[in-house]
Amino acid sequence: MRFPQVVICAADDWLAGQLRELAAEHRWLVRDVRSPAATRDLIRDARPTVLIVQADPSAHHVESLKLVAETHRTNPEVATIVLSNAKLPEDQRVLFTATAFDLGARAVLFPPFTRSVLEDLVGGLMTATISRVIGEIPAKDDVIDLADGSYEHA
Fold first, then answer.
1. Rounded distance, CA 38 to CA 31, Å?
2. pLDDT confidence of 57, banded at 50, 70, 90?
3. Which of 86, 119, 130, 147 is most exposed by smallest CB count within 10 Å?
């Protein structure tokens, strides 16, 4: 298996800086790009990938959301996170989040961002992505199936 990668399509390198330590610990590549076109080239690479797309829901351009939808359609194994710096009212956050999920995002984040939240989210998605790629399935004892009638709440 080739080294996993975290591809970040954002306006600056702040997010990449927040994740470099985590990526180095796990031997993941961090690819920090500014354009959807460069992002498309990187996610075509056959390796476990978490994609982080910075999107501004108040902007009139929709290129970031097009990237999310295209990635989900062409590379559904890529775990995509949509990150927005916009401070929106709660009702607009809900609408934007629903739209991002409909387009294929697995998570949507709004400010404030903390390093620990970013690391936990990216780490969890990457672990799940790697498990799917190499075919590891959690042992049945490690999974709680809430649809199973024998589950009891303590």
1. 10
2. confident
3. 147
Cα–Cα distance measured from residue 97 to residue 68, given in angstroms and rounded to the nearest whole number: 12
Beta-carbon contacts of 33 under 8 Å, excluding residues fewer than 6 positions away, are 7, 8, 9, 39, 42
Instruction: Confirm whether 34 is domain-assigned.
Output: yes
Q: Is residue 153 part of a domain?
A: no
Task: Give the CATH number for residue 76.
Answer: 3.40.50.2300
- Which tokens belong to 73? 């359609």
Query: Which pLDDT band, with edges at 50, 70 and 90, does 151 fall under?
Result: very low
Looking at the DSSP bridge assignments, the partners of residue 6 are 30, 50
Q: Which residue has the tokens 């996610």?
A: 43
Contacts 24+ apart (CB under 8 A), 94-98: 96/57
42: in domain: yes
Q: Which amino acid is at 54?
A: Q
Number of separate domains in the chain: 1
Range(s) of the domain holding residue 12? 5-142
Rg of the chain over all Cα atoms, to the nearest angstrom: 16
The answer to whether residue 152 sits within a structural domain is: no
User: Look-up: residue for tokens 């199973």?
Assistant: 148
